[in-house]
Amino acid sequence: MADAEVHIRVTGMVQGVGFRYFVYRKAEGLGLTGFVRNLSGGDVEIRAQGPRGMLEELITAVKIGPRGADVTRVHTDWIDDGVRYRSFEIR
After folding, report:
1. CB 47 within 8 A of CB 4
2. The one catalytic residue among 9, 20, 52, 91
3. Domain containing 64: what range?
C-alpha cells in the first residue's frame, strides 16, 4: 500500500518536449507508481503514489522539467482515491 498519493497538473510548454518521459524516468527512479499523461488543453497530468518524501522530490523535479520545457504552474493535491497502481506508466 502506498504511503501517500498526489495529483499534479503542470501548465506551460510541457507537451512535445519529452515531459512525460522525463516524469516517467524520475518516478521510476524514485520507486513511485501511477501515471503521467497529456491533457487536451496542453497541460500534463500526473498521479503518483509512494513515500511522501519521494513524491516531494518528484514535485520539485516537475517544477523544473526537462530541457525545452517551460513550466509556468504546478498545482498539487494530496489525495487518496482508493485506486492503487502497480507500476508507473505513460498514458
Report:
1. no
2. 20
3. 4-82
- Could you read off the pLDDT of 21-71 as tens digits, one per residue? 999 999 999 999 999 999 999 999 999 999 999 999 999 999 999 999 999
Identify the active-site residue in 9, 25, 37, 38: 38
Instruction: Let me know if residue 88 belongs to a domain.
Output: no
20 is catalytic: yes
Active site residue 38: yes
Q: Are strands 4-13 and 44-50 parallel, antiparallel or unpaired?
A: antiparallel
Q: What pLDDT, in 10s, does the model give residues 9-25? A: 999 999 999 999 999 99
